[in-house]
Amino acid sequence: MTEDRGPAKKPPMRDVLAEAAFALFMERGFERTTVDDIVASAGVGRRSFFRYFPSKEDAVFPDHERCLADMTAFLEAAGEGDPVEAVCDAARLVLRMYAEKPEFSVQRYGLTREVPGLRTYELSVVRRYERTMAGYLERRWAGAPDAALRAEVIAASVVAAHNNGLRSWLRSGGRGDAGAEVDRALELVRAVWGSAAERPPAPAAEDEVIVMIAPKGAPMWRVVQRVEAALDEERGTTER
Amino acid sequence: MTEDRGPAKKPPMRDVLAEAAFALFMERGFERTTVDDIVASAGVGRRSFFRYFPSKEDAVFPDHERCLADMTAFLEAAGEGDPVEAVCDAARLVLRMYAEKPEFSVQRYGLTREVPGLRTYELSVVRRYERTMAGYLERRWAGAPDAALRAEVIAASVVAAHNNGLRSWLRSGGRGDAGAEVDRALELVRAVWGSAAERPPAPAAEDEVIVMIAPKGAPMWRVVQRVEAALDEERGTTER
């Protein structure tokens, strides 16, 4: 999609349209606002709208296409590190998009909860992020047993964790640290799945072992956190 | 929703309509089939259709509402066992619905992949299953730290694993054992999260410990599987 950013002083037409559309959606409601209303408010022709947005729904979420493209590029450029860390970082790109415009994001969250068509639209977008992440993980694990299964389960976990953190922040009215909420949520996924990925084989010989002692009643995710912590500690002292 | 099952010999009107609709969708395509075509084929009036189905999309998935109700009832009746096991079993209710009608399920899978509106519809339904499971988990863990976060991440994992197994089966043309595919997929989730839930505190005193030895390079999910296996073994010998 090409974007006519126009001369330096004028805001891009695409932004003008998205802003005009959103103002009307908030004022009159999404259903009661027509594309004709939007183009009249923005002072352009009807065809201009469809040049930038395939549908009215797309104008509510003007940044997702860019963010999806950014995520794809980010993952294509990701190095040889832990792939689960990479998809967690990829999810943070989505958060950043929301956090850049707190007021808009919070208002849109309210609008989306009221309009079933927008919720459905959002589900489709979320699904595209999830598939982008799963595709990356599967490529990284190509040939490994259950690569597709693990990729899909982990991508779904990352998306769910991200959305939990994002929603907390949106519900708080966009106050507080969105990044901290999402980091905390993603940490749960990383603790469980982070090394499920492919711990770089170099540092430890195959027959080196970890010995872990934990209370029998401990929940499994705590056990995992302890193993992880122990491994990190070991690495810190012996390999750095 | 009340269902007029009619006299014993005649198939229920709802089924007649769904079958007529599906036959037309396969023959002419989803978009090109109107509700008028469907009611003409079924030999009933237009209002009968909307009495049973809010939209054309709903007629493609006639069993999800019942399955969602079954899942809710199943989880309400679930006992004090591992909540993660309970949601895995709840997911199997969805599988059973697909596996009951292999030919229909496989044909519909093809149709759904061709019609974006049906894919979106399906995403919404899947989301409702996910929320049903997450709601149950959150209630079971009420008051525990991160209850909502864990509930959402695990419900998303269960759904992703279930769908991976279901899709394998659908892609194979509905041949083979759908249950086995899904069991294998859910096992990955159960191994990692099953005890993350709330291992019943009774059997082991707080200060009893498990000692686990694993290769340092082992992926975390293998470590978890071993811890799980060790715990199960212990329980088998000491508590049963």
UniProtKB/TrEMBL annotation, chains A, B:
Domain HTH tetR-type: 11-71
Keywords attached to this entry: DNA-binding
DNA-binding region (UniProt annotation): 34-53
SUPFAM superfamilies: Homeodomain-like
Protein name per its UniProtKB record: TetR family transcriptional regulator
Organism of derivation: Streptomyces poriferorum
